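Session log. Operator J.P. requested a structure for one protein chain; no other inputs attached. Running the standard single-chain path with C-alpha cell output.
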Amino acid sequence: MGPFSHAVKAGDFLFVTGQMPTLQNDPKKLIEGDISDQTHQVMKNLKTVLTAANSSLENVVFVRIYLVNFQDFDKMNTVYKSYFASNKLPARTCIGVTGLAVGASVEMDLIAKF
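Structure written below.
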C-alpha cells in the first residue's frame, strides 16, 4: 500500500511495519467483522511477516497498537493476550487515533529480537 518494507533487520532487532486487518492476498481489502475479528487478523498478519523473517511472536519485545475507538480496548486486549504466553508479554503502548488506512479499527507494529 505504500513505499516501505514489511520488516527491517537492524542489529539484533527486527522492526515490523504496522499491520492492518486486511486480507493477506489483498492488502487493500479490510476483513469483515468487529474489533475482535480485526485484532485476530492483525495478529495473523504480524505472524506471517515474522515467519517470513525467520522469527516468531515469542521473540517480540515491544508492540505499539493504534486503536480508533478506546471502547474496543477490552475486546482488543482479550484477543491480543491470547497470542502471547502470560509470563512473556512484550512491552506495549496503545495510542488512540482518529482514523486508520482502509477504515480499520486497529493497527499494530512491533519490534522483535533476532
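Operator note: The chain has a mean pLDDT of 95.
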